[in-house]
């Protein structure tokens, strides 16, 4: 059985815990509960006829009280960099976190997730803002 | 550092007393070969020599072998009732896996941090609403001026912070307009960022002065305290952070002034534009204060001084003040380091 560790990182209150909860348990709550440390969940996915066990590390958000410890990302196959579309500052946090990962762990595969698509009217992030990410990814 | 045995004993007791403790030794590749302490507390049963550690503590998969002398995984949530701090320490032949129960400490931190993060989100939301109100176009003369309806319509205590880039005018006379605006732009980028981070709202920028309001956005701190924190940070901005501009000796030091009092704040419309306005006695006083501001110093009025008891020893009564300013003023001079 293939097992992959995947980490969720980003600023506080971008929706990392909600994404994991929705994916693993199909539950979504409107209430925001800040995460301290890390919550670990497991989920299985089928891809190309193989079952892969995902170990999902929902790591606390980067904020004025807590900096994300890079030790949490050791052994990860990749990570989701989550951004709240309604808070421009969360994109800047994502830029910084990505640099930190590259510096400490290396070039792990990652997906930039722009969350809160149900609040599109309130978005502070435009397509131009994420162009640097596309350039960096060679797209 | 060699510590006396009694101190070592004390430190051990200190770190294990309130945190149920267990530890294991594993090979550098992660095979268990010894275990001690309250393992049952961590659900570790039926351990056998040679077991893979990640069969028992699954979150350690990929962590071994260590590439550093030690590694910490704080606050790993195993269940709602069990949160573990895990320390991995490289020994000569083995890696030590230390487990501390941090459930109580993590839950306490969660409660404190929840408040801080909620407040930060709320402040962001209010600031956004305010900016939206200010961006709305209105008829040339609006029949319906907007008190800050998203906040409330009451008079409130507001602190005004005036930041002055001293001798910017003299600087402008000795350089060219492009350079002057470039300097102002760089200073303002740092000044406005600091004001926003401390929960203030920029009211206007005119000439060498910027004025910000504190007390409109939610905060756990009083408006004078927020304004003081912002001012102290802004006074630390120095010329070395301003890039590619000529130096004119004695120019561009930053000073500030704060006044506090009840004010009516609202959005007024004029010529299809909206602006944030505040009306109160201390607002007029702020303009008078501007003339007293020197580089690297802060002048505050009496109401501000009275609300900041902890900071009072840092301030001295300002003797040389215009007679028109009846209430006392206090001055603080920043460190030159």
Report on this model:
The complex is a heterodimer of chains A (139) and B (337). By secondary structure, chain A is of the alpha/beta class. Chain A has one domain (2-137): P-loop containing nucleotide triphosphate hydrolases (Rossmann fold, 3-Layer(aba) Sandwich), CATH 3.40.50. Chain A has three helices and five strands; from the N terminus they run βαβββαβα. The termini of chain A are far apart. With 337 residues, chain B is an alpha+beta fold. In chain B, 31% of the residues lie in helices and 29% in strands. Chain B is built from eight helices and 14 strands. In chain B, strands 6, 7, 8, 9, 10, 11, 12, 13 and 14 form a nine-stranded mixed sheet that branches. In chain B, strands 2-1-5-4-3 form a five-stranded antiparallel sheet, covered by helices on one side. In chain B, strand 10 (254-270) and strand 11 form a beta hairpin. In chain B, helix 5 (177-197) packs across helix 6. Residues 139-147 of chain B have low confidence and may be disordered. Chain A binds chain B through residues 3, 5, 12-13, 32-34, 36-40, 55, 57, 60-61, 63-66, 69, 71-72, 74-76, 87, 89, 122, and chain B through 58-59, 61-63, 71-77, 83, 102, 106, 109-110, 113-114, 116-118, 120-121, 124, 128.
Strand % of chain A is 25-35%
Largest sheet of chain B: 9 strands, mixed
Describe the global form of chain B: elongated
> How much helical structure, as a percent, in the residues of chain A?
10-25%
Strand-pairing-aware structural class of chain A: alpha/beta
At the fourth level of CATH, the homologous superfamily of chain A is P-loop containing nucleotide triphosphate hydrolases
* Subunit arrangement of the protein: heterodimer
Radius of gyration of chain A over all CA atoms, rounded: 15 Å
User: Count the strands of chain A?
Assistant: 5
Count of discrete alpha- or pi-helical segments spanning 4 or more residues of chain A: 3
Strand arrangement across the biggest beta sheet of chain A: 2-3-1-4-5
Question: Might you state the CATH topology name of chain A?
Answer: Rossmann fold
Report the count of strand segments of chain B.
14
Structural class label of chain B: alpha+beta
> What's the overall geometry of chain A?
globular
Estimate the strand proportion of chain B. 25-35%
Total count of domains of chain A: 1
């Amino acid at each position: 059985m293939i097992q992959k560790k995947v980490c969720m990182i980003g600023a506080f209150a971008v929706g990392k815990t909600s994404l994991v909860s929705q994916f693993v348990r199909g539950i979504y709550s409107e209430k925001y509960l800040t995460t301290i440390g890390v919550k670990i969940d497991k989920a299985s996915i089928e891809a190309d006829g193989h079952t892969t066990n995902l170990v999902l590390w929902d790591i606390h958000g980067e904020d004025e009280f807590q900096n994300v410890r890079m030790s949490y990302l050791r052994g990860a196959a990749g990570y989701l960099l989550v951004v709240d579309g309604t808070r421009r500052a969360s994109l800047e946090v994502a830029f910084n976190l990505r640099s930190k990962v590259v510096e400490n762990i290396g070039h792990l595969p990652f997906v930039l997730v722009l969350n809160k698509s149900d609040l599109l009217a309130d978005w502070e992030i435009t397509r131009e803002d994420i162009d640097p990410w596309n350039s960096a990814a060679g797209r | 550092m060699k510590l006396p045995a009694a101190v070592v004993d004390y430190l051990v007791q200190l770190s294990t007393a309130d945190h149920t403790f267990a530890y294991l030794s594993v090979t550098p590749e992660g095979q268990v070969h010894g275990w001690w302490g309250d393992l049952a507390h961590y659900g570790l049963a039926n351990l056998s020599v040679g077991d893979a550690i990640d069969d028992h503590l699954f979150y350690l998969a990929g962590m071994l072998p260590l590439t550093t002398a030690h590694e910490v995984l704080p606050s790993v949530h195993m269940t709602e009732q069990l949160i573990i701090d895990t320390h991995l320490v490289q020994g000569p032949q083995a890696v030590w896996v230390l487990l501390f129960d941090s459930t109580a400490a993590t839950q306490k931190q969660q409660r404190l941090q929840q408040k801080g993060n909620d407040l930060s989100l709320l402040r962001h939301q209010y600031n956004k609403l305010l900016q939206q109100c200010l961006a709305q176009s209105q008829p040339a003369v609006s029949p319906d001026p907007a008190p800050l309806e998203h906040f409330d319509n009451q008079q409130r205590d507001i602190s005004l912070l005036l930041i002055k880039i001293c001798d910017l005018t003299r600087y402008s006379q000795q350089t060219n307009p492009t350079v002057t605006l470039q300097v102002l732009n760089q200073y303002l980028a740092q000044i406005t960022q600091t004001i926003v981070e401390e929960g203030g709202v920029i009211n206007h920028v005119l000439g060498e002065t910027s004025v910000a309001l504190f007390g409109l956005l939610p905060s756990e701190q009083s408006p004078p305290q927020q304004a003081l924190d912002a001012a102290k940070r802004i006074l630390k901005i120095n010329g070395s952070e301003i890039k590619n501009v000529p130096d004119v000796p004695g120019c561009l030091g930053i000073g500030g002034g704060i006044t506090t009092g009840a004010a009516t704040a609202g959005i007024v419309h004029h010529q299809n534009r909206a602006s944030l306005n505040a009306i109160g006695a201390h607002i007029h006083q702020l303009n008078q204060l501007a003339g007293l501001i020197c580089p690297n110093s802060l002048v505050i009025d009496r109401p501000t001084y009275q609300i900041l008891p902890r900071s009072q020893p840092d301030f001295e009564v300002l003797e040389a003040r215009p007679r028109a300013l009846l209430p006392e003023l206090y001055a603080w001079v920043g460190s030159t380091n």
